[in-house]
Protein 1
Amino acid sequence: MDAYLVAILTTAAIYVILALALNMQFGLTGLMNFGVVGFYGLGAYSSGIMTETLGQPIVMGMLAAMIVGGTAGALVSLLSIRLSGDFLAIVTLGFAETMRLAFNNEDWLTRGPRGFLIMTRPVLEGLGRDATAWFILGVFLLVAAVVFVVFNRLAGSPFGRVLRSIREDDLVPATLGKNVLAYRLKAFVLGSSVMALAGSLYAHYVQTVTPDNFTTQVAVLVWMSLIVGGAGNMKGAVLGALVVTAIYEGTRFLAPLMEFLTPTQVSALRFIIIGTLLIVVVRFRPEGLLPERIVARPAARDPAPG
Amino acid sequence: MSVARIEVDGLSKVLGGVTVVNNVSFQVDPGQIMGLIGPNGAGKTTMFNLISGVLRPDAGKLRVNGRDVTGLPPYRLARHGIVRSFQLSRELDRLSVLDNVLLAAPSHPGETLGGALFRPFAVRRAETELTRTAREMLALVSLTPHESKPAGALSGGQKKLLELARALMAGADTILLDEIAAGVAPHLVEEIIAIVQKLNRDLGKTFLIIEHNVGFIRALTSRVVVMAAGELLAEGSFDHVSRNPAVIESYLGQAA
Amino acid sequence: MKLSRRLFISSAAVALTAPAYLRTGLAQSAPIVIGSMTPLTGGGGPYGPEKSDAHRAVVAEVNANGGVMGREVRLISEDSETNPEAAVRAARKLIDADKVSAILGTWASSVTLGIMPLCQEANVLQLFSGSSDYLPDGDSKGLIFNLQPLNKAWAVALADLAVQRGFKEVAFAGPKNDFAASMGESFAASLQALGGSIVGEPFYYNPGQASYRAEAEQLIRMNPPAIFMAGYVTDFIPVYRELIRGGFTGQIITLSFAVGPDFKDAVGSAADGILHGSPIPPIGKDSYDAYLKLVGIEPNGQVQNSYGCMAYDEINLCLLGMEMAKSTVSSDVAAAIRQIANGPGDRVTTFAEGKALIDAGKPMNYDGASSSADFQENGMLKSRDFALYEIKDGKDEIILTTTSDATK
């Protein structure tokens, strides 16, 4: 059971990182990014290509992922930056779909539907099976912690204040001298490069990547994590990802309790539970489990987190 | 002769096929408190939008401190020393009242990505000082007890005061106030008049004020321009223009 | 996190104390745990339940008659969601939490390949049905067994058919997925070996589109005498319609699962003339009928539950392998499975028959419900029966059956 919990926590760490990134884009800045899996997948394949095809060490892979993800994010937001928020939603949807098709069809680069086998792992050689799993978990938790600290600091800083003001009203910050377009771009790129980083970690963990790994379902789980946990609050994003992962994986263990149901029915029931959770949260606590903190603490110490 | 703070030179704007501002020219001199009055629909707020860069003029030129700033976006105009309030007050609802004011601080080191990440001490220092200043602004408009509330929780009149505090915090030379007294309790209107006069007298701030409240205009402004149906109808002291028959007629279509 | 931890612990505790296995009166030694991962949702959703049912039916019967090595067999079912991402997480639970010795039943090749690195690392046996030619590449320990012929074998059979009917120039079209990709390569190679050739390049289209007019037009422009289409029914129907509408008069050759009753209903008489083929369970064979009856289906002389019968063989081979090896260590079991499946020995078709021979110390040759279940070194089938049909008056008329030899 230990090994399974380690595996679940490792997956949860990836979703935590994705949720933090989406929080930077949507929770703080109000940017609707429905193309999460596009950047995630881009990071996975970039990292894989860097380490497998070009033979570089894994750190180079992670760096490549972030650069590619950040650049893609810049291009995507520049495309729609002068349009209203709804257009960004559509553009990002289109981007994710385009990426999926590209992954599938450009098989000279990505091995397409066959699957891209990745042998490079974020771990020291020679450890036993259990130790390897713990080591990888440690690496992922470290990355998640770093992302959390950085993003949380940004959220509580004056920079974060400007982002939130842009979320509320894009005219007021402009008339107060803030370059709204530049801030939006920065927030989006910060988010997209971190999503790509998550993709890189994912790729080196599961070791086989196919275009099928990057489906809407992943994006839905990330959005759910944010909504359940509390958009606008970095701690909320972390909590939301953990809760959603726990429910998704925990419901597997319901099967032995329900011998009277067929496996097909149990499987359907799991999805019903997950969907119901989302409905309940949106209905009764739309701001999430950890809502955004509005009050600024007196600036005797650091600017307020949240 | 010092350079005008704002020079509007033949500005025109067409919106939805209607000429909302038609070849209007006037200027606001440094240290002046100028009124912009006229019946509803005259194009006053559109003029504000043109001056603050929210709208781009279709014709004409805009100069600030002698520099041609026609067509610049709002954030660039703001850096030329212009700040405005909004007629339908636009609050950043989910930010605290204090944060709303702090946002207006110009050149805060913590607002850049690099500053926020790599210069914690400078940022903290700036934040402390600016918070002190922001609190002074809030005190000026009697909003101190509401400092920690989300701005969305304020009443309509209070939101107007917040607009003023924010405009003051921005430290701009030229302040555009769009119906700042509307919906504000009378004793606070008196306070606003006092604040504006103080800033004008002691700090030399220039004001361009859109207002329907006659007492407000008469008490504050040395000069007004009158707009009606997108055109400049008259210019001069308030007493002077209020006797102008064309001005009176343009208002006759309105309730007083 | 307190909440989720409590959930884990309490659920695990309840699962462990579930009294189900106590009731069967078997020995109190630890049960043999086997994972059944089938597509219960997603693209393979129509085919998962019959596999899962086959697994459960056999396990119930085996447990009622003394289990394996006198121990109860506990089957844990998971949904692969026909998606490798979800399947990997389910596999981790099966391997690390449930500690299964084998994972049976995966259907989509991307899923099978997706969980293969985990299974290989944990020395977990995999028995499955899949056709991607890339499947053997993921195994380096001899722990996989595939009950379905690879695309290479299908392609050989169909290329043979095409040439026999006088078509040496055939275009190839299929959706851009794992299955069609390897099918295209193999078909081209087989055709060439018979002296024919592919017209132009294999043409791949993106599955799941709203309209295929552009694709159909491109195919028509190539003007081939015949097209071999390797699609699933969801994309085959619209593409075929566009081809007919566009005036294509050449021969269409395809795979049987693309032209089932849904297709015939959708296009009516326009279906006539299509040639198609697929691997078939040996209709009328005693083991096949026995499987059907076990899961409560009356044999009717047509192809039924083509995936369920493979699942039946998966679980039988796995359990017999464990019984013969007297162990759940995967390498031992794999070696035993090879002996059981390939023989030589007396013919057996069920677990009970095989167990009797094991107890008597005699060798056996398992003859399955889906095929004779003889494996090559790499765990792929040596051969499989194929049937080739032509649609006439809305019905499939069998033209010939052939046994495709995958070792060629």
Protein 2
Amino acid sequence: MRSVRIIARRELTQYFTSPIAYLVAFAILMLTGWQFNVDLARRVGTLPPDGAAVLGAFGFFTVFFAPLLTMRLFAEEAREGTLELMLTMPVRDSDIVLGKFIGAWLYFSAILALTLVYQGIWLAITTARAYELRPELDIGPVISAYMGIWLFGGATLAIGMLFSAITENQIVAGYLSMSALFILWLGDFSGSVIQNRALAQAVRTLSLQAHYSTSFLIGVIRFEDVVFFVGLIVAMLFITTRVVESRRWRG
Amino acid sequence: MIEVHNLTKRYGRFVALDRISFRAHQGEIVGFLGPNGAGKTTTMRILSGYMPPTDGAAKVAGLDVFEDSLEVRRRVGYLPETVPLYRDMTTRGYLKFVAELRGTPHPKQRADEALERVGMQDRARSLIRSLSKGMRQRVGLAQAIVHDPQVLILDEPTIGLDPHQVQDLRALIRELGRTRTVLLSTHILSEAEQLCDRIVIIDRGHIVAQDTPDRLRETLFQGGRLFVRVDGDTPQAVARVLGRVRGVEKVETPRDGEYIVRARAGQDVRAALAETVVEHGWALLELRPWATTLEEIFLELTSRMDATHASKAPKRKGRGYA
């Protein structure tokens, strides 16, 4: 566990020294900020405030931005030769994988935490006497939405990291994970392309969005959705560990 | 400290290492000498715990590199061929990270000590990306010694350095080798001669020879061919005259004015050769044992090995010497 912590800390620091991480943070804040503004203008005086609205968009953006955060995790180390160093340290392969994942997840959490400013604005204008905007912000769905997006983000990062371990090329890793995540996101709309109802449902159950947009985001915390995301993360970390291990045998 | 017994590594059908065995004791610097693709890096990767062998056993400090991989890795300092550096970290930050992962107590202090050891304390705060090639190499070495390991494995540590840096690095390695076991690979013969207590020559996955530098040279010389450069008559005439010198078995003429003289076993024909050349009024430009450059040593040793293994090994087309 000690080595996991050391590796996670290095990864996290790495994000704060790399331009791409700042660009991702910047882009996500721009897009969600714009989204928030539009939503705010539309609701004032006509609809109840919805703190989770901005997180719906955040989820979709994550599909594209998570790969940018994860593509370098293993691909860069393999290319620079530092993976050989990591693999000759007295550290288990699973510790390396877990450490890197936690580092990435922590950075994702930091970006996510920035969006709390929108909730702050909601709270300020719905409870401040001067505006008298009723009803007040419902905190429940906001909390569940944050839980959901956090797990959702973890799953997308775990998937992205797997692709980074498969190839030495960051661009390829980024592109593949982006495609995979996009397909998993679109799986939610399987009903409109697949005629067979059972099959469509099965595909939808495997999609990322189905476990997020129609549950956490609307204030429902279901056990099965939590299990889905946690299970996905565990499975991805396991496969990534195996892929990293296979490097030893391939030479 | 290092015991390798019948170590074999196959990549698919390609045999990178074929039953090699050697030992390295404490306080000994052992040089791994061989052309590119001979199996040096593969051996080092196995000993550092990076990859498991296909067959055979390798032990470091009495521990099996596969069974007790983590324990072995704790005791080994490893500098791979491509120096593993995180370009966006400072040298001190990088060394501290390595020391922490290695589980060394007082990582910060150890990082500073390692930096001092390689003479880089003034660049502790520099980003690694801003360092020159020689400095990076030194940081790489600092990384390998930061946890004060008993065994040091250095894969071509002096490659790409300028002569001054090479001298400094060799001095450092020599000092480190006083108390530790050092296994280093190189394809520069003079480096192996200067640095190592023992040289293991490896070619195409086989150990061709292993001995102290002095004895290795002696063995080579005894079996020996001489390289002679003479300015005088036509090559045919010179070769004929040299061939008549007492004790000479055979004379080859690889190039105009250059002759390779093979003496009968146990005979030193140098004096006689020199005398003959002078007698004929020719200029003796060079006279030395033929196998003094690495290329020649390989040709010499591997041609002998091919002769002994001719029946077993399949014939190879062409030789890719670097």
